Amino acid sequence: MIVEANAGYRLEEDGSGRVVVQFGDRIKTFHIYVLYARRDFLQDSPQAVRAFLASWFQSIAYMGAHRAETIDMVRETTGISHGIASRDYDELMGMFNRSGRFDAQALAVLARSFVEMGLLAQAPDMRALVTEAYLP
């Protein structure tokens, strides 16, 4: 089954399954975390969007600089073991985009995926769908 890494780690820990492959090992250029906002909200509340993004990047920086505290917070809120929280942290922290800038190759992968999944007949122009205008 395809699940979040954390769920796979839980199956391994309780002996009922194992992680066979992680997509990050196979697909190197991909935007795994993308933040979305409605166009009307962007137009009506640009400062709120900028403030949210600034806070998002501050949170990522804090997590990166405070591994043990971050793992403890995750354990407290999710009830998972220290081993799973540590493994999850080590896996996920490297996936966070710390600049908010889009990678053209990663956007091309995403555009092709819409065609491969049969959602669109041709790849969309991803630059028309994303913006970096609100980054700090």
What are the defining features of this structure?
136 residues, mainly alpha, 55% helix
Short description:
It contains seven helices and no strands.
What structural class results from the helix and strand content? mainly alpha
Rg to the nearest angstrom?
18 Å
Uncertain regions spanning at least 5 consecutive residues: none
Order of helices and strands: HHHHHHH
| Helical amount | 55-70%
Tally the helices: 7
What separation lies between the terminal Cα atoms?
38 Å
Shape: globular
Largest sheet: none
Kindly report the average pLDDT value: 92
Provide an overview of this structure.
With 136 residues, this protein is mainly alpha-helical. 55% of the residues lie in helices and 0% in strands. The protein contains 7 helices and no strands. The chain has helices spanning 5-13, 23-26, 39-44, 46-65, 67-78, 82-92, 104-116. It is globular, with a radius of gyration of 18 Å. The mean pLDDT is 92.
Topology:
Layout (H helix, E strand, L loop, with lengths): L4 H9 L9 H4 L12 H6 L1 H20 L1 H12 L3 H11 L11 H13 L20
Helix pairs in contact: 1-6, 5-6
